[in-house]
Design goal:
Structural class: alpha/beta
Helix content: 40-55%
Mean pLDDT: 97
Strand content: 5-15%
Distance between the termini: 44 Å
Number of strands: 8
Bound molecules: Double cubane cluster
Radius of gyration: 21 Å
């Protein structure tokens, strides 16, 4: 912890005592979960470094952006089209919201039976613990679930918030509504930044974000190899860091990692033994530092080979057309790409069920673990359909409902062990 960082956090109004406690807790957890892994690719050093300095260098870059007159736009959902933000010269940051640390702070205001992701994000603001929140000029929310919708209203008492309306169906009418939302978002961002988004700028931003999507897809495809060349924990960390690092730097680092992992695949070098059970995790997103389920599975001898989630395939799947065109044409292409995200907020959501089966086949998994954040009703209810679908396909499934606390770790280990024994690997 350098004096420069302390000065920066003080200027941001961070509660230093709570913040110290958070960072002091994070260090040993990262050591235990990440740095204790054997035979990791060297390319993970960059991502370890970013987490090791999680509230340092990147926050300083955001502060510099503000000092130069630029804006920082914080988001909570992969539906917010980041291309629009980059195109206006602003910086988007996906907020973390993956720690139990801020949950009790939120529970002073929000009902306890709210999902941990919502409580964690709100607690960060209420407790003034997160320099990313405090560095942002606008928080962009969305109407994906009722808990978030209402939390954003309360959050707006503390910081400027703009909410995008994400429809709950994918009909023609709903798509028109969403296109209108994307166009309105462009206007909001132009007004915030004072910069006009031109067709050229938007095309450049689209290419940049597409390139990061391509890099992440490349990394995921390498996980299809047997033995799997990189742990699920490491792959998850790469995705998590991509939410708040600079888009071009992240792309470069992911591709450098992929170059190394490609060699591993060629030489048959694995992060696990060849016969390790291969698991697809499907469900709610896992924001930093939520590594709980991956850690339980991988210390039980399984290899997590893919995540069907917003901190997985839903984040980078589907590219946006790079054909350019007018600003209107590009915004339409952007809106169409985002409507391909198969979040459980949609009804019906057959596409997600299809995705799970397709990914289970592509990654040759031995079983699927459905991950549900407690009190998230959309994913919990959709799990019934996931169960029916996977039963028809003969793919073993384990449904886990949990939160960010440690209390149920022993029970989860027992269930995971029984599942791995049942799938016989
Ligand atoms: S597109 S998954 S990132 S909404 S877990 S807060 S849904 S009660 S996170 Fe999500 Fe966007 Fe969908 Fe993806 Fe609500 Fe559920 Fe909590 Fe959730």
């Amino acid at each position: 912890m350098t004096n420069d960082n302390i000065k920066m956090w003080t200027e941001l109004g961070i509660d230093l005592e709570k913040h110290d406690n958070l960072l002091n807790a994070l260090g040993p957890i990262f050591q235990e979960i990440y740095l204790s892994q054997q035979n990791r690719p060297d390319g993970m050093a960059f991502f370890d470094f970013v987490v090791g300095d999680i509230h340092g260098i990147r926050v300083r870059e955001l502060r510099q952006q503000a000092k130069n007159g630029g804006k920082v736009v914080a988001t909570y959902c992969v539906f917010v089209p980041e291309e629009v933000v980059w195109a206006a010269g602003a910086i988007p940051v996906g907020l973390c919201a993956g720690t139990q640390f801020s949950v009790p702070i939120a529970e002073e205001v929000l009902p306890r039976n709210t999902c941990a992701l919502i409580k964690s994000s709100f607690g960060f603001k209420l407790g003034r613990i997160c320099p990313y929140v405090e560095s942002s000029h606008l928080i962009v929310g969305e109407t994906t679930c009722d808990g978030k919708k209402k939390m954003f209203e309360i959050l707006a008492q503390h910081q400027p918030v703009y909410v995008m309306e994400v429809p709950n169906k994918k009909t023609r009418l709903a798509r028109d509504l969403w296109l209108g939302e994307v166009v309105a978002f462009k206007d909001v961002i132009e007004e915030l930044t004072g910069n006009r988004i031109t067709a050229d700028k938007l095309e450049r931003a689209t290419r940049q974000v597409n390139n990061r999507r391509r890099a992440l897809k490349r990394l995921y495809q390498l996980r299809q190899a047997n033995p799997v060349p990189i742990s699920g924990k490491d792959a998850l960390l790469v995705t998590q860091v991509s939410f708040y690092d600079d888009v071009n730097r992240a792309t470069q680092q992911i591709n450098a990692l992929c170059d190394e992992v490609e060699v591993r695949v060629t030489t048959g070098e694995g992060a696990f033994t060849k016969n390790a059970p291969r698991i697809l995790i499907s469900g709610s997103p896992m924001a930093i530092p939520n590594w709980k389920l991956h850690h339980i599975l991988e210390t039980a001898g399984a290899a997590v080979v893919c995540e069907e989630s917003c901190t997985g395939t839903r984040f980078f799947g589907d590219l946006i057309s790079e054909d350019g065109g007018t600003i209107e044409e590009q915004l339409k292409a952007i809106s169409e790409r985002y409507m391909k995200i198969n979040c459980a907020c949609f009804t019906p959501n057959q596409e997600r069920l299809n995705d799970i089966v397709r990914l289970a086949r592509e990654y040759r998994v031995d079983g699927v673990v459905h991950y549900n954040l407690q009190f998230c009703h959309t994913y919990a209810n959709e799990a019934v359909l996931v169960e029916q679908t996977l039963a028809r396909e003969g793919i073993p499934l384990l449904c886990i409902e949990t939160d960010y606390a440690d209390e149920d770790i022993g029970q989860l280990r027992t269930r995971v062990d029984a599942f791995l024994e049942m799938i016989g690997r």
